[in-house]
Amino acid sequence: MQPMLLFLSILLVAAVLAVLFVLIKGLVNMAGTTTADLEGEGPSQRALKSQQLMRQRILLQGGAIAIIALILVMLSAGR
Fold first, then answer.
1. Which of 5, 6, 19, 66 registers the highest number of CB atoms within 10 A of its CB?
2. CA 64, CA 44: separation in Å to the nearest integer?
């Protein structure tokens, strides 16, 4: 059971780093918003990219939460 916990811990760190990476990428994308992006017709390419990054971040956060739940279940079962 110990190797599985180590694997899940490493997987959790990777998931958290992936969330952080996508978050920073989204912030950089949002910081580059121009007046033309805001006043153009329909959603701009930047807005579409921002929404795509937000979806990725939410999925990665859900994965990280699932890993945390799995670790907690394994720890409680080991007692």
1. 19
2. 30
What is the phi-psi region of residue 26: left when phi exceeds 0, alpha when psi lies from -120 to 50, beta otherwise?
A: alpha
Q: What is the pLDDT of residues 29-75, one digit of tens each?
A: 999 888 887 888 888 899 999 999 999 999 999 999 999 999 999 99
Written as one letter, the residue type at 48 is L
Contact call for residues 22 and 57 (beta carbons, < 8 A): yes
Closest-CA residue to 48 (of 61, 64, 29, 62)? 29
- Do the Cβ atoms of 29 and 50 come closer than 8 Å? yes
Stretch 10-35: mean pLDDT: 94
With b meaning 16 or more CB within 10 Å and e meaning fewer, what string describes 33-68?
A: eeeeeeeeeeebebbebbeebeebbeebbebbeebe
